[in-house]
Amino acid sequence: MTYKAKKFDHLIGTEGFSDILLKNHFTLYEGYVTNTNTLIEKMGTTVKGTPEYAEIKRRFGWEFNGMRLHELYFGAMTKDGTARNGDTALVKKLTEDFGSPEAWEEDFRATGALRGIGWTILAYDKDGERLFNVWINEHNAGHLAGATPIVVLDVFEHAFMIDYGLKRADYIAAFMKAINWEEVERRFIA
Fold first, then answer.
1. Is 10 labeled as ligand-binding?
2. Could you confirm whether domain 89-189 is CATH 3.40.190.10?
3. What is the pTM of this model?
4. Is 25 annotated as contributing to ligand binding?
5. Is 132 helix (H, G, I), strand (E, B) or coil?
């Protein structure tokens, strides 16, 4: 099986995201898809137990998660944004776990503003029935095992520097306006 890059061209024209930034970001994502496929192919042909095999295995998590995290990031965005409904299962859970949706958002934004590169994720641990805002420093490290990503925010520089320079908080504000809450709710319920 070969992974195919998903198309996110419908996001062109999203307020707060220049077409140049989005097109560059889509190209970067497509590179993760290509590299994931390349590593899968090499895993089948490289001699096990060699340094080359070990490096392929280590690198695979980075490329695969880079692919998936970008799909989750772009997949929960919409050009027009949607309002967060006050009476959904997710809003009730945000209130239960964070005190209010506004308190969740404040913590999510603060997590996204941490120094460094990585991802901010609202993750749901179904077994513990708990939502967490998590900082993931690298694609392949810091994930909560078994937790489902609900909202994914890319805070690597490529996601915002073209439009915002060092003003990460302004980028996060633009992202929050572009969230497709219907998709986020679907992820939570699933």
1. no
2. no
3. 0.95
4. yes
5. strand
